[in-house]
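User: What would this chain look like folded?
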Amino acid sequence: MADPALHPETPTHHQTQPLKQIAIDYTPEACTHCPDANTITLTYDHRGGARWRTTTRFLYGTFSSLIQCPRGNTSGLNFNIYLSSLEGDKSQDEIDFEFLGKDRTIVQTNYYTGGTGNKEEFHDLGFDCSDGFHLYVIKWGQDLIEWLVDGKLVRVERKKGEAFPHKPMYLYASVWDASYIEEGRWTGKYIGCDAPYVCLYKDIHVPVGSAVEG
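Assistant: Here's the prediction, encoded as structure tokens.
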């Protein structure tokens, strides 16, 4: 956790603290959470996948997690960490890191404003995201979004007069079969020969002072 006394220049919403509490949206038996160790495990198998989220929304701030993505033939699967004002809402604001199971050496970033996205970019990681833990960070401000991987800035978006994410958002993560999207061109077709697939999250941090009730 960032100590404001040590870093007085850091805005409150960019000071972070360990995530202590989550909600599980579906398949709770496929998600394990250990608050003391600050670890979360998501499993995809015959039960389908699972999704966790924070219990509060946040208005701006820095969000981070060490992630080790599933191993094996992950074709068809999507694993991720992202912000969304409400999953499933057609007018949602959203900021994404998404891993595509057909190629674990890339990550897709994207953001939505009022339900409109189409701002995808793909980034070469320089490693297989299943080979150990790597740090993924989203820094979201009123006029600026930054995506970082292992401390390296991979994308910057600045508000330039157009609409920009401004709704309070939950931090989400899930593992799911996305084979049906674009007839499998996005993530590949699900094969499942190496199930169960396990995605590990640890050292998850959320903003200190930007939680919003409701």
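The chain has one domain: 27-212. If you want, I can go into more detail on any region.
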